[in-house]
Automatic annotation (TrEMBL):
Source taxon at top rank: Bacteria
Location of the N-acetyltransferase domain: 175-311
Alphabetical list of Pfam families matching this protein: Acetyltransf_1
PROSITE patterns, alphabetized: GNAT
Protein name: GNAT superfamily N-acetyltransferase
Record carries keyword DNA damage: no
Alphabetical keyword list: Transferase
GO molecular function: acyltransferase activity, transferring groups other than amino-acyl groups
CDD domains listed in its UniProt record: NAT_SF
Length: 312
């Protein structure tokens, strides 16, 4: 068995989907390849002679040096033990990514329909993918919900009780990121704080949104009451394809008063005023207050994701 990244001549050999998820169309692949988000060195094959038995495709920002997420996996129906084969394929690619300077193993983002557990074939497909990811060091999993807002859903009311102000001082913003980690229900935040501490995790989040996300730093706002008390942070942003909610949070001393709805309304209206045709957002399945806020804020739950990542 040979594991390798693809060459230009291999583009026509990218296999088609075998389950109703975990795939990209030829058009999507070409668009993202043109944008530098899919690259030959980030697309790997498992070959037996001239047969492609498995394929893994990683995604990254068009101007990024390293892949950020494993997007898609495929295995040929003739493979008796897909978890072992794909685990070995991922390990081969991971070894190369780390040797080339990647700071960590890219997580595997498995996008799924909301009803996937009702389909035995989908359950089986998820099971071997979970095992393969764990074999390749991605042993932690987190279930996340994706939400979508479009203009047809209607705008939320303006958040009249809060004043949203720009804050150009990075140190001030970083201090807010630190405070928002306290009591967070976000799984990655809790894992990160446990692994590296509040300061390091808050800085990593701050630098990710400032330096890697395409949304400009100038969009960030701190929210204050009429009396001047700092309530929280509203951080609209963008990813490579869409406007996104980004990051929002209420400081611990102000939680329980519904301010999360004001922050979300500000972000939604911000994107709408700029002409966004779609705003997407994600939250953990266990973060029910945030999920409820999205529903109240006129967002629709359109899919879920299983995220498999390496332990911190």
């Amino acid at each position: 068995m040979k594991f390798r990244s693809i060459a230009a001549a291999d583009f026509a050999r990218i296999p088609h989907r075998t389950v109703p998820f975990d795939w990209a169309t030829a058009v999507q692949y070409d668009e993202r390849r043109t944008a530098g988000q899919y690259r030959p060195q980030w697309t790997w094959l498992a070959e037996d002679g001239d047969r492609v038995l498995a394929r893994a495709m990683w995604w990254g920002f068009g101007d990024g040096e390293h892949p950020l997420a494993l997007d898609y996996l495929y295995v040929h129906h003739s493979v008796a033990d897909p978890a072992t084969l794909v685990g070995d394929l991922l390990n081969a690619a991971h070894e190369t990514f780390l040797a080339e300077g990647a700071p960590e193993l890219p997580a595997y983002h498995l996008k799924l329909p909301l009803n996937w557990r009702a389909d035995p074939a989908s359950v089986a497909a998820v099971d071997w993918r979970r095992t393969a990811a764990a074999r390749a060091g991605l042993s932690e999993d987190n279930e996340r919900l994706r939400y979508e807002w479009t203009p047809a859903d209607g705008l939320p009311e303006p958040p009249a009780r809060l004043d949203f102000r720009p804050e150009p001082d990075d140190d001030v913003m970083l201090s807010v990121f630190r405070r928002l980690t306290e009591g967070s229900l976000d799984t990655e935040t809790r894992r990160g704080v446990t692994a590296v501490g509040v300061d390091a995790h808050a800085r990593a989040d701050f630098e990710f949104y400032r330096d890697q996300m395409p949304g400009p730093r100038e969009w960030w706002r701190l929210a204050y009451t009429a009396g001047g008390d700092l309530v929280g942070l509203a951080l609209p942003s963008r990813n490579a394809s869409n406007a996104v909610v980004g990051y929002l949070g209420v400081l611990p001393e102000h939680r329980g008063h519904g301010y999360i709805h004001d922050l979300l309304a500000h972000i939604t209206r911000h994107h709408a005023e700029l002409g966004a045709s779609r705003v997407v957002a994600d939250t953990d399945l266990v973060n029910q207050p945030m999920a409820a806020a999205f529903t109240r804020g006129r967002y629709r739950n359109i899919e879920m994701r299983l995220v498999f990542s390496a332990p911190h």
